[in-house]
Automatic annotation (TrEMBL):
SUPFAM superfamilies: Bacterial exopeptidase dimerisation domain, Zn-dependent exopeptidases. Residues 180-280 form the Peptidase M20 dimerisation domain. This is Glutamate carboxypeptidase. The active site is at D83, E144 (proton acceptor). The keyword Zinc-finger does not apply. InterPro entries: ArgE/DapE_CS, Bact_exopeptidase_dim_dom, Pept_M20_glutamate_carboxypep, Peptidase_M20, Peptidase_M20_dimer, Peptidase_M20A. It comes from the Bacteria. Keywords: Carboxypeptidase, Hydrolase, Metal-binding, Protease, Zinc. The lineage of its organism: Bacteria, Bacillati, Bacillota, Bacilli, Bacillales. GO terms for molecular function: carboxypeptidase activity; metal ion binding. It comes from Sediminibacillus halophilus.
Amino acid sequence: MNLETHLESQLPEMKALLEELVNTDSNTHDKEGVDKVGTLLKNKFEELGMYVHTHREKKQGNNLEVKAERSSEPKILIVAHMDTVFPKGTAKERPFEIIDDFAYGPGVSDEKSSHVAVLYALKALKENESEAYKNVHVIFNSDEEIGSPTSKPLIKKAAADKHYSLVVESGRPGDAVVSERKGVGRFDIEVEGKGAHAGVEPELGRSAINELAHKVIKLQNLNDYESGLSVNVGLFNGGTSSNTIPPDADAKVDVRVKDKQQAKEVTKEISDIADEDTVEGTTTHLEGGMAQPPMEKTEETEKLLDVIRDAGKELGMSIKDVGTGGASDAAYTADEGIPTVDGMGPLGEYSHSLTEEYVDLTTFAKRTALLARTIQLLTPVNK
């Protein structure tokens, strides 16, 4: 039985597990919920006869490592995250449902359908007597939605001896996977001025809002969409009352860059803007920096894409690759120099949407088969 046919026969089980996962709240800050998802996955992989190690965390959910055996040294790293952006209680308010060929619910594409795909891809390989499942090291992490503070060291350590990294954010329409992601910067700018009565003695004040407003315009002028650079002042706060010269103001800035050189240049430009005062008597403090490196497309990435395309051809798929401005854990493996392709999960769209996030169930078996066959093609025959 070929992989896709085998997985088509598993679809009822796959949908049932997807429903159970989606109906388990797992907001990043809901440790209990994330750990419930982790325990469910741990049990499923152990039923498959695989080794699972739990990395316990005090505040965030626990992180999981899965391998065929404790002592095995696989060369393919798969990264999936268990956390979602949705508050605790969302699953009860908006539980899993299937309408026509689409599944809906909190985290259904970002990325609980991918949990199922990883499990059943390895299960299909093992049940079809392919040793390729032994060549896989899976990290299920708990905090991707906030930049993976606890799991990033684990991911980087796991990537150190790997030949390939497959990250299972949702697949894109048109049989597409993700070959490039922008780097992400987060900056906080605080301005201290001097308060004064706006009617009685305004000349004694030093407006922090006025100073920050000048800086915001300069920051927004850094945007260069054609070159892949975006700078967005998303939050701006300041002042105490309408009749007071504002003594303080602050802004939060999101930056997206295409490559490391662009990251270096825009970081300096932001620092220069912070250092340049327009309103005499104000002081500016800048914090933050590049939080996530860009996932750049390399020659080695292209070679990995060729293997994925070959796997897709066998399944009647014409695999394309796209870039995106969103961030993921793929950035960390790519930054380690490991050929990385993201978007290897089932086709889904509208991640983080309150109502529209979905997975196309007609792609569930085929995209899982794509993952399984890619693992086979990347695995030497003596594995």
